[in-house]
Amino acid sequence: MRSATTISKMTEWQKSVKETGRNIGFVPTMGFLHEGHLTLIQEAKKNNDCVAVSIFVNPAQFGPDEDFDAYPRNLDADIRLAAKAGADIVFCPEVDEMYPSDGGIRIVPGPLANRLCGASRPGHFDGVLKAVLKLVNIVQPDSVYFGMKDAQQLAIIETFFRDFNCPATVVRVPTVREQDGLAKSSRNVNLSISERNEAPAIYEALQQAVILFHEGLEITAVEQFVAEQIKNKTSGTIDYISMLTYPQLEEPDAMSDELILACAVQFSKARLIDNIIFKREG
Questions:
Q1: Average pLDDT over residues 71-98
Q2: 255 pLDDT tier (thresholds 50, 70, 90)
Q3: Which amino acid positions bind beta-alanine, per UniProt (predicted)?
């Protein structure tokens, strides 16, 4: 497996792949790889000739009071894990390589970014799209793989690719979880022992709430149920709990078919997000 730290080396690799008629699956990450990331790489390997993985902690998507400096990093381990999972190349640029200058042009994700995580993290998804667009332009993949834990991010990226005719196909991959149901995340290492024991209650509450919704409970009551469960069973502070249409992220009506029940909970040193995407019927 190769690694590249410069855009020119990454471009050289992708051109050599395309010249031989092979396709590329791409997995963009911020590193500190866990089983969720490895599942994305494995899925990409099943369906593509070559797999590229990026490891780039993107400062553009962190707010002024967020944890850019504290975000966990272990590049050597990440490269070994990516290779074992089937990656053919890891692109791991420094910030100055990705953002050598700033011409002032911005990508504005619009109403999709005003709900859920975007409501309390202004500018976050602007930064996500900035990095994703640059990485896709550099790697030139045929398919890009994203986990469904970051459901709002996925919805925004799918809409962005559709509306701007990005040639790569976005592939959804289901959330990978620990045995107790906690969604795997690089930030889980920042939970204290007691917080880690509490955290599975988030997904349990979402699961129970979806059952209650199918039994006839109204949306506001469903959201209140989740809030009460999380308050009673964890020491975290709720950022939001919301049921919306997916991937439009709008208020549901009687005709809405696919829905998302999503939440974010802030612990002392980690903010956890989780969701369930489900059909109204079934």
A1: 97
A2: confident
A3: 61
Query: Binding site annotation covers 81?
Result: no
Spatial separation of the C-alpha atoms in residues 272 and 265, rounded to whole Å: 5
As annotated, the active-site residues are 37
Looking at domain 186-275, its CATH class is alpha beta
CA angle (201 as vertex; 125, 118 as ends), nearest 5: 15
Beta bridge partners, 265, equal 238, 272
d(CA 213, CA 221): 9
What are the tokens at 245? 């249409």
Paired strand residues for 279 = 258
**CATH, domain range 2-173:** 3.40.50.620
Q: Known binder of ligand: residue 256?
A: no
Q: Is 35 annotated as a binding residue?
A: yes
Determine if residue 9 is labeled as part of a ligand binding site: no
36 is in an annotated binding site: yes
Residue 64: predicted pLDDT: 85
Average pLDDT (78-88) is 98
Look at residue 282 in the predicted model and tell me its pLDDT: 64
Q: Report CA-CA distances (Å) from 3 to 7, 83, 88, 217.
A: 11, 10, 8, 52
In this structure, the number of other CB atoms found within 10 A of the CB of residue 108 comes to 9
